[in-house]
Amino acid sequence: MNSHRSWVQPFLTTKSLLPENQESPIEFIESDTVDSRLFYRRNHFLYPVFPFNSYWLPIGGAVTRSKLFSMDDLFRFPSKTIKIVLECAGNKRRLFNPKVYGEQWDKGAISQAVWKGVPLRILLESAGIKEGAKEVVVEGYDYGPRSDLNQVYPYARSLPLEKAMDSDTIIAYEFNGRPIPFQHGYPLRLIAPQWYAMASVKWIKHITVMDSEFSGPFQSIDYVYYPHKDNEKDARPVTEMNVNSTIQNPKDMDILNAGTHIINGIAWTGKGRITMVEVSLDKGHTWKQAEIQRHGSTEYSWVRWSYKWTAAERGEYKIMSRASDSFKRKQPSQPFWNRKGYGYNAVDHIKVKIE
Predict the structure, then answer these.
(1) Which among 52, 130, 114 is positioned nearest to 79, based on CA atoms?
(2) Separation of alpha carbons 212 and 210, rounded Å
(3) What is the pLDDT of residues 114-150, one digit of tens each?
(4) DSSP secondary structure letter of residue 195
(5) What is the C-alpha separation between 146 and 115, in angstroms, rounded?
(6) Across the strands, what pairs with 303?
(7) Which of 16, 84, 200, 256 qualifies as a FRET site for 270, CA 20 to 30 Å off?
(8) What gap in Å lies between CA 41 and CA 26, rounded to an integer?
(9) pLDDT band, very low/low/confident/very high, at 1 (cuts 50, 70, 90)
(10) What's the CA gap between 46 and 38, in Å, rounded?
(11) Helices within the chain (DSSP H only)
(12) Neighbouring-strand partners of residue 59
């Protein structure tokens, strides 16, 4: 006889419908890869319409010879398979104080999958990069109006040449062993490991090598850290993910019986690897080291962690987690506040009650 668990399934949490933005039920994700049904969805515009049956990938700009690749061409190149975290730059935006405008993501604008594709470097080298090239612009088929500029724009982002030429930056055509689902970028999606997911452009339309700085609105206006509310002083681009952690169990505001409980969650970083996760049960006065489970983890994936807690006394408790990485970065007690609400990575916390 099947248990209840076999038919009770979590669902995405809807943040908006037009465009579709859905949050992964991260507290209920127990596997190292997230299937397309539960993988978070982030869109700036409505889903694009384009000719699937006659799809070609052009590469032009500052190259010695423009190229046009068919899907069969891409399948013939050496492939690379990588398991990576994709985290929206606005993940946890709802937690900022003072509040910031934008999609009010909680903790579920993050998922993990295995992507397969051809290194972008191979395609760029086949086109021949001209001397003086600085950036590689990837434009998607998705586009729409921007109210701040009174104009229609495509979603396009650039990578510095060094990042574009990294052997792990790929043009992906598979997601968890299957063709990429349409909602996640079919037929081709850029995957830029360790950077926030705004860099991993979906539904690729064309790639352009530039000898100047790209200034599209999703590069120069959005996905920029603005530390000051009313001016652009000290602005800097959003790039690699911050070190971060999320408590999955118990759930926030759970009521628990006295006894032994397992506190667990995930931790990830955009530089190096996670070296330590700590848990506090006394509002941050003392910290205890959690156990990190590295089975199945890779260079770009999250790690799972757990801590055994014996709760003997009744009352309310604040459970906190903080991660550290190999570049000596540690989650701060307070987030770096910025006007558009990117990169939240303050110490995670929940509250529970022991009865």
Answers:
(1) 114
(2) 5
(3) 999 999 999 999 999 999 999 999 999 999 999 999 9
(4) B
(5) 31
(6) 267
(7) 16
(8) 13
(9) very low
(10) 19
(11) 71-76, 120-127, 161-164, 217-220
(12) 67, 207
